[in-house]
Design goal:
The chain is mainly beta. It has four helices and 28 strands. Helix content is about 10%, strand content about 30%. It has a 26-stranded parallel sheet that branches.
Length: about 475
């Protein structure tokens, strides 16, 4: 989340690009802002229609009691110069139901070919579900916006509403978001704070973000069919007591993009320190494919890449039936409190496959934890193989063309996400663990799938996902 030098370079590039535009260009890929309908300030209940294009100028709020509805096929641009950001405040709602043939797109205002990570602020959605912090606020938003329900919260002073709905997102893409709103404070592509389980997220893709892909701060909300593509920092980041569920996910990393704070596939934390605050971050992921920056060997072009899974400070996140490869390091438990939560079953890592870059970096531990204990925990319920290469991936059924390899960011195309016929990834999924029958989970997961990782023989990215948004003309 912290890369001030990188952001400074981006703003210099922005200044040079703006200087090269004519007055009528107005730094947007539609040629002239007069053709865009500007959204700014506080929005009242309204519908955005696909026959128009929209520009988010500055911080745009949907406040308590208001609803923003977005039609399928609608395109919304985030203004770079004013750090355009869409914020659904507590009590507000967003209804964004795209379709596979007409997804809703939120993207950079910069013309095709020149878009870059962190061009605008992204999508922030807030609610009143349980959070383990007192009065948490979203980084960089001014005036501050608070989220989450906690009996001690001074701003809400209410019991958490864990079943609340902040809206619906289906077939939505968020591209080039994550701008630095204030020094060392960046938004993510999609930031979720205290969302309730009534909030729907299905078929959502984030790409080329300047910070994390999906970040959950507390809450109980769920997601299915989520794609994090070419992120700068972490792909799936959970914190502040998130206890929802996600099934079917994909992350693909570009080798040159990584944050100085350390970039991971999963980053899971419980709070800003190791205090014993509850609810714990104890959500459940199943059927996720993590494709790191290394497609062969053990070295990576950007040394800021770290772990496939980084488990931090009293976290108890559960991950099942997933396939993780391509990161220079495997699994890390950074505090004794993390080990305790996994050894006592509060969190579970089970039935996963890790392809490690090297034997020495398979399992890592922070102060007070031994790498041998991390290894013993993982290997009791998961599988690890050393050697990131085409042979290993072909054995399991992962097509090597899903890796970036030596391609430039705008050259990624033609990836085959489905598993090759007869390969081991098509079988072995298990939903027998009691975690899947806990309240709020029993009816969420599709327990009929047999495959591990995010895909079987059906490519659920087809038709709506976009893997070359840099050159996409909107």
């Amino acid at each position: 989340m912290r890369n001030t030098m990188k952001k400074a370079a981006l703003f210099l590039l922005a200044a040079l690009t703006i200087a090269s535009c004519s007055k009528d260009d107005n730094d947007n890929n539609n040629g002239n802002q007069s053709t865009l309908e500007v959204l700014e300030g506080n929005l009242t209940t309204r519908t955005l229609t696909a026959d128009k294009k929209y520009l988010l100028r500055g911080q745009v709020f949907v406040r308590n009691g208001q609803t923003l509805t977005i039609e399928p096929g609608t395109v919304i641009f985030g203004d770079r110069r004013t750090r355009g950001t869409l914020i659904i405040d507590r009590g507000g709602k967003i209804i964004a139901n795209g379709t596979a043939s007409r997804p809703i797109v939120m993207t950079s205002s910069v013309e095709e070919g020149l878009r870059d990570r962190g061009d605008w602020g992204g999508l922030v959605i807030l609610g009143n579900a349980a959070c383990n912090q007192i009065d948490p606020a979203v980084e960089g938003i001014d005036p501050p916006v608070f989220f989450g329900g906690n009996p001690g919260n001074t701003t809400s002073a209410s019991t958490p509403n864990n079943t609340e709905s902040s809206g619906e997102l289906r077939y939505v893409r968020v591209e080039f978001a994550g701008i630095e709103l204030s020094p060392n404070n960046e938004t993510n592509s999609i930031t979720m704070g205290g969302l309730g389980s009534g909030t729907v997220m299905e078929y959502c893709m984030v790409s080329f973000g300047g910070d994390d892909g999906f970040e959950w701060f507390g809450g109980t909300n769920n997601g299915k069919y989520l794609i994090s593509f070419a992120m700068w920092d972490d792909d799936f980041d959970v914190d502040f007591g998130w206890s929802g569920n996600v099934q079917f996910g994909l992350a693909v990393r570009y080798p040159g993009y990584a944050d100085q704070s350390g970039s991971n596939g999963f980053e899971t934390d419980n709070g800003p320190n190791d205090n014993d605050v509850q609810p714990y971050t104890a959500g459940v992921f199943s059927n996720v494919t993590i494709v790191g920056p290394i497609n062969s060997g053990s070295s990576v072009s950007n040394a800021n890449f770290q772990h496939a899974i980084d488990a931090r400070r009293r976290t108890a996140l559960s991950i099942f039936n997933s396939f993780l490869t391509g990161f220079p390091r495997g699994l890390r438990f950074n505090q004794p409190s993390v080990m305790t939560n996994y050894q006592n079953g509060t969190g579970v890592l089970a039935n996963n496959i890790l392809i490690a870059a090297s034997s020495s970096n398979r399992y890592l531990a922070g102060s007070g934890v031994s790498a041998d204990s991390v290894r013993a925990y993982w290997e009791a319920n998961n599988q690890t193989f050393v050697g990131i290469n085409d042979s290993t991936h072909n054995h399991w059924g992962l097509n090597p063309n899903v890796f970036y390899g030596n391609r430039l960011p705008e050259q990624y195309s033609g990836a085959t996400f489905t598993v090759q016929a007869g390969k081991p990834l098509l079988s072995g999924a298990s939903f027998a663990h009691p975690k899947f029958n806990e309240p709020g989970r029993a009816n969420f997961f599709d327990k009929n799938v047999t495959f591990r990782g995010g895909f079987g023989t059906t490519d659920w990215t087809a038709g709506w996902a976009e893997f070359n948004p840099i050159n996409k003309k909107y």
